[in-house]
Structure formats: C-alpha cells, structure tokens
Design brief:
Blueprint (H helix, E strand, L loop, with lengths): L1 H17 L9 H24 L7 H30 L1
Helix pairs in contact: 2-3
InterPro entries: THO_Thoc5 (IPR019163)
GO molecular function: mRNA binding
Family: Belongs to the THOC5 family.
Length: 89
C-alpha cells in the first residue's frame, strides 16, 4: 500500500510541476489607459525639453517610446475589433 501511495504522490507532484505558468492578460481598456498615460508623460517631457532649450539627445528615445505606444494602441484596437466581430457577426 505504501508503495502505491508514494507513486500516486509522485504523479501528482509531476503534474503540478508540468503545469504551464498562467499568463495574466490585461484588458484592452487597461492597456489603452496605460498607453495614454505614458504618451502624455512622454509628450510633457518633449515639451519641457523644447521650452527649456535642453540638449535634444533624449528626443530619439522619447519618440521611439511614443511610436511603440502607438503600435500598442493599434494592436489593442485591432484585437478589440476582432473580438467584437466574433461576438456580433
């Protein structure tokens, strides 16, 4: 009996270890909100650089971050439209 119980425990432990980690996905609304806030912060930094005549070394990085957020916004929009079309057509 003990051997069988040990085998069962080993099988249960193996199943627990093999289970893939669950990926927590953000809702499209939260992703849009976070991207909007990030873009607003970046634009504020861009304007402060311009107003204060600071060196424009960080402009490329800030513009790249802005474009990445726009790509994210586009992906969320497409994802939302696809979800909408699946449920309503």
């Amino acid at each position: 009996m003990e051997d069988r119980e040990m085998e069962e425990e080993m099988v249960v432990e193996e199943r627990e270890q093999v289970a893939p980690p669950t990926k927590v996905e953000k809702s499209p609304y939260n992703m849009l909100k976070e991207s909007k806030v990030s873009v607003e912060e970046i634009v504020a930094k861009l304007l402060s650089i311009k107003r204060e005549n600071k060196p424009k070394l960080k402009l490329k990085e800030l513009l790249t971050q802005t474009f990445l957020h726009f790509v994210t916004l586009r992906q969320v929009n497409i994802h939302s439209l696809l979800d909408f079309s699946v449920f309503h057509f």
